[in-house]
Amino acid sequence: MSNRHRSALILASASPRRLDLLRQIGIEPAGVRPAGVDETPRARELPRDVAARLAQAKAQLIADQNPDSFIVGADTVVACGRRILGKAETLDEARAFLKLLSGRRHTVIGGVCVCTPDGRSGTRVVETTVTFKRLTSSEIDAYLATDEWQGKAGAYAIQGRAALFVKFLRGSYSNVVGLPLFETAALLRGYGFQWDQSDDASRD
Questions:
Q1: Based on the structure, what is the number of domains in the chain?
Q2: pTM here?
Q3: Annotated catalytic sites, by residue?
Q4: Which residues of 116-143 are buried (b: 16+ CB within 10 A; e: fewer)?
C-alpha cells in the first residue's frame, strides 16, 4: 500500500480500531501519537460538545509537536440522553452501563478533527443512533467475561460480540467503531491530503 501526499499524516490516538479504520480506506499513517488529554466532561457540557472539544484538543496537541504533518484526532462519546457513558473502569460499572443500554436507544457521537501543516483545522461531529435488544443477565455476564468492554466507551465494542445486541442502527457504522470514515476522508480531501485508494477499489 502506498501513499502520495505532500506531507505525512499522524493519527493522534492510541486506539487500534481507529488505525485499522484508516487503513481500511487506504491510509497508512506515518506515525501514531497518543494525545494525553484529560477526557473528563465539563460541568453541564453536552455530549456533542464533549466529542468536538476532545477531538480538537487531541489533534491540536499533536499538531503543535508535529507542525509539518497532517493530524487526525478523534473522540467517541456514548450518551443516553444527556448522560455520558465513558469508559467503564470496573466490572460493576460496565455491568451498570449494559443494563442501562438494554432495550434502549442511545447515541454514539464521534468527533473528528484534522489539522494541516499550514495551520488550518476543521472538525466534524457525527451522530449514530443505536438500539440494543433487551439483554438478559446471562447475556450481560457472558459479554463481560470476554473483556471486550475494557477501554470502550459505553462498555461495548460493536465490531465484537456486542454486534449480537444491536437491534437497530441509523447512521455511520464506522463512527460507532471509533472513526466516522466518510467525514474523515472528506476533511482530508478538502485540505489537500492525497492517498492511494486503488487498494480499496480493487476489493470484492
A1: 1
A2: 0.90
A3: 75
A4: bbeeebbbbbbbbebebeebeeebbeeb
